[in-house]
Amino acid sequence: MKRVLIAVAAATVLFAQAQGFPGSKPISIVVPFAAGGPTDLVARQLGETMRKTMGQGANFVVENTAGAGGTIAATKVARAAPDGHTLLLFHIGMAATPALYRKIGYKPLEDFEFLGMVNEVPMTLIGKPQLPANTYRDFENYIKANAGKLNIAHAGLGSASHLCSLMWQSAVNAKEAMTTIPYGGTAPAMNALLGGQVDLMCDQSTNTTQQIQAGRVKAFAVTTAKPLSRHPLLKDYPTLQEMGLKGFDLTIWHGLYAPKGTPPAVLKQLNDALKLALKDPDFIKNQEALGAVVVTDGRVEPAAHKAFVAAEIAKLKPVIEAAKQFAD
Ligand code: ASP
Questions:
Q1: Atom 5 in ligand 1: residue holding the nearest Cα
Q2: Residue 273 has pLDDT above 60, yes or no
Q3: Cβ of 159 below 6 Å from ligand 1
Q4: Tell me, what CATH number does 110's domain have?
Q5: Which of 30, 223, 238, 291 is a Cys-bridge partner for 123, taking CB atoms 3.0 to 4.6 Å apart?
């Protein structure tokens, strides 16, 4: 009897340890781009919300590891201790980078535990305020008339802004028209645009909406297949499809990941906190104000998000192959 009691007591301690996550150590959300940009913003709002939904004194911190279109951060998280204290918030780059890099330090579908999808965000094609064009048509004519003289900013090979510029340059056949300038994120790229050092950028509405609203940048089009008819600020901008770029459809999504091998109980705790965060009225309101749509369907489930990323990898591969001639 005594022996049984000791065994039960030992099991209780083990169980209590598994339940002890996160303990006093903070949970770090690694963001693959510079602070102040759109991926950073999603991570900060999400971390703050998951702090509430996870409870137990959980403390989320955001760690910006910019560079190489997000691949440095993804490699770092793939190799981090699988204890739930290091997570990755990445966007569509998770699916685009395998087609854009000859070699990357991780396999998106094998080296991570998928926690779930967070949101979808449209992109906007914007220019510095000094550009003489006011409509998308004027803009396209201006680009053609100024071939070789313009530059377009992005957040590195494989980033969303890079993907958008590749797809758009390919669709309008603007190969000779512009030089691409990479930054560690679209926060510094936006500063360069506001300062007039670069001419154009395609970036998530979460980074551009307030600048468009304040008239600090000019917007010409949105990248989604359907018009953003419900968005008070972006509803009047045409889609690139409406402007004749057949089949142009680019929506950026974000997902949350942990290193492969993170214990199932910890993953469940994180996924539960994520699901609750995506129902948080303040999180939804803050995201919506910037044009992002929080995921409400089954894609917040790990397996469904993984299947979604696999489908995105397959979908983007031919698109990127076709546009790759515009990469430099
Ligand atoms: N918006 C960026 C991109 O183009 C990333 C960022 O700075 O958040 O991928």
A1: 185
A2: yes
A3: yes
A4: 3.40.190.150
A5: 223
